[in-house]
Amino acid sequence: MAARLVRRCCWRHFGAFVSAPSAVPASLLLPVGKVAMARALPQAPFASFHASSPSSWADRFSVKEQVEDSRNPEHRVIRELIETAASPQELFQLTELHALNSNQASLIITQLSRLAAEKNLETESILRDERFQQLIGMMDSQISQVWNNTLVNLLKSLYSLGMDGNRREMQSVEQEVLWRLRRLTFRQLASLAEFLAVKQGKESKLLYEVIKKLELRWTELEGTRTVVALMGKVGHVSPALMDRLEDKALELAEQFNPDDIRKITLALAYQNRRCVPLLRALSYHLIQKHSELSLNVLLDVIFAYGKLNFHQPQVFQKIATDLHSQVSTMTPVEVTRCIRSFALLKWLSLPLFEAIAQYALDNTKQLSVTHLCGIILSFARLNFQPSGSEDFYNMVHEVLQGQLDSLEPHLLMDLVWSLCVLQQAKAPYLQRVLAPDFYAWLRGDQSLKTQNLRLKLIHINAAAKLESPDYQGPFLPAEMLSAAEPAGEKVTLLQSSLREALAGVLGSRNNGRFDVRTIYGWQIDAEMVVNSENKPLPLKDFAAPHLLRSEGTKPLPPGARRVAFLRWEFPNFSNRGKDLLGRYAMAQRHIQAAGFLVVDVS
């Protein structure tokens, strides 16, 4: 109790002591054993005392200032004038009419930044104004007396106004914030981290220090708003902090509203963090507690789930049902985003896709070629054919006529490949991408993306040969028909079981081939030739037009047939049944068209 009384007396005398001029050297005010360290910037007479004092002193002093400010009529009036000012001129007039302290000058600078943002004012003229320079001087002269919350807002305001980071006063504010980090509340640290992550990025030294404090004090984290904001704006900078935020979000999952869930799932998607327990909890509460969801929530959640490859059938069904009723009111961008997300998830909702096909027919003039391409690519991925396919594809061909040359090469390749999947690739499309001058840029490039495009080009060439009897060329030359082999593919259980089963049927290794790479860009898991009595024949003796280099030359004997075994795993199907995805349905068609009897193994 005596210690408490002494401390109160000290503060009372200290308040009077600060208000009077003093010539006492700063070094004499430091605790015994401490060396006076001069700041690189001009300070108030007792700045060193403030910096080296225990944090509890600074907090009490800050509380004391706030109490005094609320009791001081003049301070209260000035604060109200600052908060109600509607223009920079009104704020600048305060510097002429009142003797301001450093805290009030900081409040004015913060209000200037707010007005500039709200009214879209030119910040350069504010920074050049002589009265603004006076405010900077007032603030800098006694920066250690600026309250913590005001100091945080001051730093953000100076960044927003575009003040030169090399200016002495700017560095003074940054250094003061750095010195006070331990005394800031968790909410102030979070607010500062959110701002710095957006404004300065990962390279900011101050942001690094702020995040270190957040990581150490994560147990103070409370409230959904802070969790959501930190996950969205700061999580990507610190994986360790993001781990803590995910744990806290799981704890608070029941309290999140739909928009919070939208922001969290987007944050996870953009950072490629597939936190399954959190996603499951958010999905449960989204379905159980929120019957009506806005369009933004529906589109963003399904996009995030698609990007993370997270499958939750109940959520998909609800979102598809809710979106179906809103398709007619969507913009082309929203429609394209919606259908591409479902295609990515391999989730075919027939009513939704039919509605989107009808939307494309009803809004042809509003759809750009890029939007239409997005719809076609999505239909092809899921091998979806609209019920009114004739009208739909007539519209597609009409829109695309004369537009092929305007498309970027990668998009044009994907478009023609998708039309081949849907069996809608006409001669002009095939001629455009199979022309030597189009694919010249693919030669010599061994990147994974280019290899995938080259494989699609081989598929297009196969469609032209096997499914377009009226197409006369051009076709790919032989040197373009060898696709790069995928590296490091693991043998699946189904694959090994198929090989074991066929080993007994074939009798001899000469009677079969495994993992056959064809000139059509498709791989056959196993191949054999059987005679009219269904007995295996040696493959090496016969010509193999489906191979780049055939070992034999003999034609097949009368009644003999080629048999291809195609293995289909779970990823080859859509998530709504046993329908093959478009890519694999086209592979099946091409192998059959090449003269094989196809045996599907799944």
TrEMBL record:
Keyword Transit peptide appears in the UniProt entry: yes
InterPro entries: FAST_2, FAST_kinase, FAST_Leu-rich, RAP
GO cellular component, one term: ribonucleoprotein granule
Location(s) in or outside the cell: Mitochondrion matrix
All residue ranges annotated as the RAP domain in the record: 563-602
Any GO BP: regulation of mitochondrial mRNA stability
Keywords, comma-separated and alphabetical: Mitochondrion, Transit peptide
Primary localisation category: mitochondrion
Alphabetized GO MF terms: RNA binding
Pfam families on file: FAST_1, FAST_2
Family, per entry: Belongs to the FAST kinase family.
Protein name: FAST kinase domain-containing protein 4
Organism: Grus americana (Whooping crane)
Gene transcribed to yield this protein: Tbrg4
